[in-house]
Threonine aldolase
Amino acid sequence: MDFRSDTVTQPTPAMREAMANAVVGDDVYGDDPTVNELEAFAASETGFEAALFTTSGTQANLLGLMSHCERGDEYLCGQQAHNYRYEAGGAAVLGSIQPQPIENNPDGTLPFDKLAAAIKPDDSHFARTKLLSLENTINGKVLPLSYLQQARAFTNKHGLKMHLDGARVYNAAVALDVPVREIAQYFDSMTICLSKGLAAPVGSLLLGSKEYITKARRLRKMVGGGMRQAGILAAAGKLALTEQVSQLKTDHDNAKALAHGLATLPGFDVNPQWVQTNIVFAKLDDGVDIATIAQKLKQEQIIVSPGNPIRFVTHKDIRREDIDRLLSVLRSHL
Ligand SMILES: *Cc1c(COP(=O)(O)O)cnc(C)c1O
């Protein structure tokens, strides 16, 4: 039972079979029919013109930012944004693109007054503000559709492009009970991780206009992301976007149950109200020695990342019984 992340999922038996039987070719020549099919399918599902299969979500974000911004340009993002905090500064290092982070509101949105104040005037002192990058879900929270609509109006008014780090955008769509294109429609570009709750072993997608994806394809080659018989991976990716989406509802229900259970434990502060998808955060009282508890859990084959707040992530390899077992083992060690 591994609660560290939804990246730990094993591929499904159907994925392994599809991978074994995938028709493949050299994707750098554009010859892999399975990759081409995944890209076309993803584009049509999300309402974009084109898609690009990438090695990881980090690579998809990097190519996404670099395809919008030149050297000396800047993107606005959240202080908590994955593509600011957790991607080794790639946009700055490899793209010479300056991030301009803004403190996220508690619900994950970014305040428009602060965004507006951060946009630089056209003056040789400043970087050129080109792009607003949002994340959905962000720390498991879903950005409201009304906020996305306002963000689009904001970026239109200020002549900015808008990118979505949609690593878990399917979790957002399932939580809102809307097709993913209802979220995607507001953005110029979007990423999707196939290898998180959707259970593919490897791979992400970048989506956008044809012209934008052509640019990203060149950049993907530049950073060493051109893959050959990648249809082996894309075959699993296609099943991620078809057969695995409905699993996310179960993951969300399990996370909710976990949040309600954790809230009854002494020293655990959880607001189940905030648990909208598959990620649960619990604040711990000083008396809770989580490092020791994590070691004890490990002896019972339960893996968690110790921290305060502590994060638990549900996914297809966590069943409802596992939630109950985690709660009872945790309770016994408190
Ligand atoms: C995981 C994640 C990424 C990066 O994906 P990798 O495949 O791990 O590189 C990007 N953005 C968000 C919000 C993520 O959760």
